[in-house]
Amino acid sequence: MNVIKTRLPGVLIIEPRVYGDARGFFLESYQQQRYRDIGIEQPFVQDNHSRSAQGVLRGLHFQRSRPQGKLVRVTRGAVYDVVVDIDPASATCGEHVAVELTAEDHLQLWVPPGYAHGFCVLSDTADFQYKCTDLYDPKDEGGLLWNDPDLGIAWPLGSPLLSEKDQRHPRLRALLSGE
Questions:
Q1: pLDDT score at 48
Q2: Interatomic CA distance for residues 97 and 111, integer angstroms
Q3: Which residues are CB-contacts of 18 (< 8 A; sequence separation ≥ 6)?
Q4: Which of 22, 63, 68, 80 yields a CA-CA distance of 20 to 30 A from 139?
Q5: Which of 156, 86, 94, 147 is CA-nearest to residue 115?
Q6: Catalytic residue among 35, 80, 115, 130
């Protein structure tokens, strides 16, 4: 597998080795020792699978006191995936990384604990799968406004379909100041 470091500490783009022929393809989507060798050492305790329609934007989400690391991938369709550094002690706080993930390219994205994460669907539908290093706790969830102008995210759609919750998340400066 090929590992691409991003400008955010610990955030990795992973290109798994894909073996294909006329019958189809095979890839290892996770193998504990190989992922430990690239620095993903936390155990995974929960796997999630979501399906979303074109134009849906989910995020930007995080957990406050029990942050989750996420190993994400797309198994149908295509998404624009975004990771935002929300650690006020980090030199890259407020910066983001964005990458397109598709079922055809098989790319994975490692989002370490402590980052906000979200994606929007570019294809008719998308199946999004991710492994988590901690259990989801609805009382611990937090969010960041998807279109906060201070983040400068160039989302590839103008009017996404959002949950009510995702429409009400605070901007980064409010989050960092505790408002």
A1: 97
A2: 10
A3: 25, 26, 27, 106
A4: 80
A5: 86
A6: 130
Domains of the chain and CATH, by start: 1-173 (2.60.120.10)
Separation CA 156–CA 160 (nearest Å): 9
Residue 158 confidence (pLDDT): 85
pLDDT, residue 179, reads 67
Q: Which amino acid is at 47?
A: D
Burial (CB count within 10 angstroms: exposed 0-12, middle 13-18, buried 19+), residue 176? middle
As a whole number of angstroms, the longest Cα–Cα distance in the chain is 56
Asked if 61 contacts 117 with a C-beta cutoff of 8 angstroms, the reply is yes
Task: Decide: 131 and 47 in contact? Cβ < 8 Å.
Answer: yes
Distance between CA 66 and CA 104 in Å, rounded?
33
Q: How far is residue 33's CA from residue 15's CA, in Å, rounded to a whole number?
A: 16
Q: What's the pLDDT score for residue 52?
A: 98
Other CB atoms closer than 10 Å to residue 116's CB: what's the count?
24
Task: From the candidates 61, 106, 117, 169, give the one annotated as an active-site residue.
Answer: 61
List the chain residues with pLDDT less than 70: 179
**Does residue 179 contact residue 169 with C-beta atoms inside 8 Å?**
no
Active site residue 30: no
Tell me if residue 19 is catalytic: no
Instruction: Look at the block and give the residue holding tokens 């960041």.
Output: 144
